[in-house]
Amino acid sequence: MRVLMLGWEFPPFIAGGLGVACYGLTRALDSMGHRVTFVLPKPVDRSQSSHVRLLSPAGSAAQRSRPGTVSSTARPAEPAIETVQAELATHGFQHAVFRGVPASFASPYPGHDRADKTQWVSLTDVAAPTAPEMEQESEDAGTRVYARQIADLLASVRTPEEPVSPLQHSNGNYGFDLVGDAERYARLVVSLARNDEFDVIHAHDWLTFPAGVMLSRVSGKPLLVHVHSTEFDRAGNNVNQRIYDIERLGMHAADRVLAVSQLTKNICERRYGVPSEKIDVVYNGIDRESQQPATGSEIRSGDKIVLFLGRITMQKGPEYFIAAAKRVLEKVKDVKFVIAGSGDMALRMVELAANMGIGHKVLFTGFLRGKDVERVYSMADCYVMPSVSEPFGLAALEAISHDVPVIVSKTSGVSEVLSHVLKVDFWDIDEMANKIIAVLRHPPLGATLREHGSFELQRLTWSGAAERCVSAYEQTIEQRSRSEATLPA
2-285+464-484 maps to which CATH number? Predict the structure, then answer.
């Protein structure tokens, strides 16, 4: 199977669970022998990642057509195909091709820490390829036609009374014109991929939906959109209408919709009007080998550590975590609460903890990467995910893989697939506190959760997720073929 995959996160840049999911799924498909061409709307930082090289829209057709070949305009000369293929293989990739197009945004999450090492390039400057970049003048004209179609597509979901730029979110300001970026990314994707051969298009989350829709129209290939979260998860009922419209457009234009949980599937049906029979639930997996902390990395302390790891936003419920911490500390004194992450509510949570008189017991680490994430898991005696709305919740699987007892919100996708975790209503801070205290005070309970949780992870793999995606690909291709066969000649 030849899969053209569109996404806007890939390690080492992970602002949320999407980057982890894209990496795990791509690697699993690759290991099964499927050829994945992954197009990113931003460059990957080579100082942290050696297994991904990038191909710009100006790359030659010869380079694009060779499996396993990737290149970049950042270097005048590229290594031989054997060198690149070997480099990919050492990181578990045999068939995947990674391509990058410039982007002007660092993260689509409001309030996310933008202090990362990539040199961002304004997408506006490269939105319309010039004639020397194109292989033929006729193709340049075709690109302009596609660009107009994409602009019309995006304009159709813009409300007249709403400004085009910048994009305001109900929980803060993204700081960039993301809808404009989605439009420009779509134009570049069509230009980049129009000469490629692929069987299906797999688009992850709303920023890539316009690109997927237009590329499907241009190529005639089936489109699958993968819903990792919705605007209702991110903003509650105060949704940004333009983002909602793009999400709805993508779901209805797609041949099939992949949802990360039954919870997300229900939202797609109820809020977006997508027929149930069109949606497949594909649960996320966990790469247990890469998640294990290094031997001897554990930090011992007289304090018990209760961990919150995630974006500090309304969706994740950090205020309920702090409120529960207050209740716990009324009964157990030797506990520290660690909040690892960044987001638009971070400062408010610092003030909340201080106002409750527990500021000295609540530690804020900021956004963590790599070994720092492993280190904080190794310290934890309990992990709590109090999400108001969590389409899946990969962090819960990561906590279990690091041998940490887990408490999760009932309004999370991961609660559908895990039995050996403690489950609470996010708003019930008394019950959340009681369960935290039970884990800390009763070692046999924590031991049971760790032991059985580890067994549960064995059936939650990226290979299993990839197999379900391939099944959806095959079903979509078959449906598209039957539909075309019934059309009049």
Answer: 3.40.50.2000
Identify the CA nearest to 403 among candidates 420, 425, 386, 427: 420
CB proximity list for 438: less than 8 A, separation 6 or greater? 422, 445
CATH number for region 288-457: 3.40.50.2000
Report H helices in 156-292.
Answer: 178-193, 209-219, 231-235, 241-253, 262-272, 288-291
Helix-helix angle 443-457:429-441, to 10 degrees: 100
281 forms beta bridges with 259
CB neighbour list of residue 217: distance below 8 Å, 6 or more residues apart: 149
Contacts of 229 (CB under 8 A, 6+ apart): 16, 18, 205, 264, 315, 391
The whole-angstrom separation of Cα 453 and Cα 404 is 9
What distance in Å separates the CA atoms of residue 138 and residue 450, rounded to the nearest whole number? 61
Contact 70, 97 (CB under 8 A): yes
Residue 243: closest CA among 205, 281, 273: 205
Q: Which of 116, 76, 77, 103 is nearest to 7 (CA)?
A: 103
pLDDT digits (tens, 9 = 90+) for 231-277: 998 888 888 888 899 999 999 999 999 999 999 999 999 999 999 99
pLDDT digits (tens, 9 = 90+) for 244-253: 999 999 999 9
Contact between residue 88 and residue 94 where contact means Cβ atoms under 8 Å apart: yes
> Rounded distance, CA 116 to CA 9, Å?
13
Place of tokens 């983002």: 243
Identical fold for domains 2-285+464-484 and 288-457, yes or no, is yes
What is the pTM for the complete model shown? 0.73
Question: Quick check: 235 and 171 in contact, CB under 8 A?
Answer: yes
Structure tokens at 362: 């609540």
Query: Structural domain boundaries of the chain?
Result: 2-285+464-484, 288-457
Q: What is the pLDDT of residue 16?
A: 64
Query: From residue 112, how far is each of 18, 47, 181, 311, 341 by CA, in Å?
Result: 14, 21, 18, 8, 9
